[in-house]
Amino acid sequence: MRAVIDTNVYVSFLLSPRGAGAWLIAMWRDSRFEVVVSPALHQELVEVMERPEIAPKVEVQRRMALFYRLRHDALWTAGSLDTEGALADPDDDFLLRAALEREAQFIVTWDGKLLEQGNCQGVQIVTPDQFIALLVRSG
Question: Which residues contact 46 (CB under 8 A, 6 or more apart)?
């Protein structure tokens, strides 16, 4: 099973060692699913981590460990597929591009606008809690 994890989920993981974000990272570590990432997603994560309201709240070691893991253990894709207008918010198209290029079945996010869409071009858009439940049920 493959999933694109939205930036907001990574941030929640980095800000709190508990919760759904932490469960997802642990399940990824246990090879329960594969994470798909693109340069655009990575760049957005770097930019968000540098924001003054977030950077001081994140332990440098946790941030570096996540970036290392993304670099070495995630499935990378170019994110160049044309998906213009597929999602309600065009600023989120990079998530769908990554999912489609690497045949990910899920986009995992806390973004309400994305979640309202529910499904796009065969990719299910779910909350971290919903995705964890799917992983648990799948064994």
Answer: none
